[in-house]
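Lay summary. Proteins are chains of building blocks that fold into shapes, and those shapes determine what they do. In this project we predict the shape from the chain. Here is one chain we studied, written as its sequence of building blocks.
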Amino acid sequence: MNQVGDQVQLMVAPIPSGSVIYSYVWDFWDGSSTATTAPFAIKVINIGGQPGTDELHFACRPVAIDGQSVTLNGTITANNPPTILPGVSISNNDSFFAYLTTLALTAIDVDNDPITFAWYTGTTFLGAGTSAAAGNQYGTWSGNGTTIIQQYAATANNIDLVVTADRTVSCYVADDRGGTASVNFVLRGEPNPPPDATVAAGVAGVVFDATSPANARIGEGQTVDFTVYVAPMPQHNLSYLWTFSGSDNWTMPPIHESGTTASQPNGGQSNTVYRNIDSEVISFGTAKVATAHVRVSAANIYTGLVTHTDADYPILLIANSAPSAVTIQRLDNGTPISGSGPVAAGTKIEFVAAGTDADLDLLTYRWVFNQAITPTTLYLWGPKVLVDTTGYAALSSVQGNLTVEDRLGATLNVILPSTTVT
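And here is the predicted shape, written in a compact code that computers can read:
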């Protein structure tokens, strides 16, 4: 069976002796014509034969020197190769190596011959792919002066590939009579990149400016959370390793941590470590520059190739200042009490405190009074409290102390002046 691409020689029977032929005019199945001076022509088969018959028709008109001619008709047969339909696809291309992609196409055969698929890179056979029926699809055949449009059974085929370098993959579609069609898929990519990572620190009362790192004040329950944000890296497994250091180092182990990973809405990841800093001992001022260093590693899931990037984030560890002073007023019905008083029994003594803190922290006030009645100890909280002396015996006194505490647990203790009750 002739195939598309074959070259054939077409001939007509010799003209009877005595005729003088000027030329032979050939009309082919594809609508083209040519003229020869001999009774044969060379033609490349450029289409398959008409569906149902495999025929390609041609005609030759020997033209005599006197202009007379006769038409001689001929037929050859040729196989139609499979037809690859428009819509071949690549699911993923131009990604970072290595990446997974799916190549897909659909084919028909207008002769209804069974077809098979073969995928190659150069001369390396990759496989037959996965085939599935794809319903009926329209195909068009034109030749022999006619056009045939009808539906044919279609077959879809795809193959999954891991792309590790630029390359061209070809799919060959063959029927069982030797016809073949092919299509090329050009796959591209870029070298496996390091992760794109940025680090930030979250600190209660954090301070930022353009020239210095964040400030973290050391105190009870204080923590610093360091977070690295990594842009999406498809086809990679990410891992994290945090190391902490500084001008005086951090006093508490461990030095290395893997952190806690979370997915981000953009498809990337974040990884966070929490560092307790209340055990860092600084008596005053800024004593430590602590640096969080993180290495983000990305392992390609197909090749195992590992890339990494390093990022640092420094913070200043600052000593917390305890409340520095407190003023206390005692009032009897709005009138300040001086010295030890006295006040009459039954008086509700008002105590008012105002503390001073260098860090401008919100302060809490805890009052403890020794009473001359039951209960013998009275606990009150807040910057303004009342002590009721009802039931106090003559010449007894109101005594106690005040503790002023900032938000990080630093305290200032003062003894309250004694107030005599008459």
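What the prediction tells us: The first strand starts at residue 2 and ends at 3.
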